[in-house]
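Give me the fold.
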Amino acid sequence: MGVTKERTVLYCIHCQKETLHTLTYVGGELQKIKCTECGMEISFDKKQMLLVYSEDLVKRILTKPKRMSKEAFSDLSSFLKSLPLRIATKPARIVREVKDLLDD
């Protein structure tokens, strides 16, 4: 899950029209909505978002062995081929998630 961003058209009360907005989700929970035209932003409590993110991260860590076992049994060859790269890039992906959360 982590941090995801989506774009959608919403009505902006500042622009007084429908505009493109960026929605930022943390752990599946909406963190903020930002108008791409005027920059008006509706944010939610960052401490709460960090709590949600950390709970989601712990859940993902605890379920990773089971998910990897299922993947290995499903297609061992592909699993073994992808494992070294995944192990090498996972720390960077986690750092990017946290950075995205803190930068917003």
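DSSP finds two helices and four strands in the chain.
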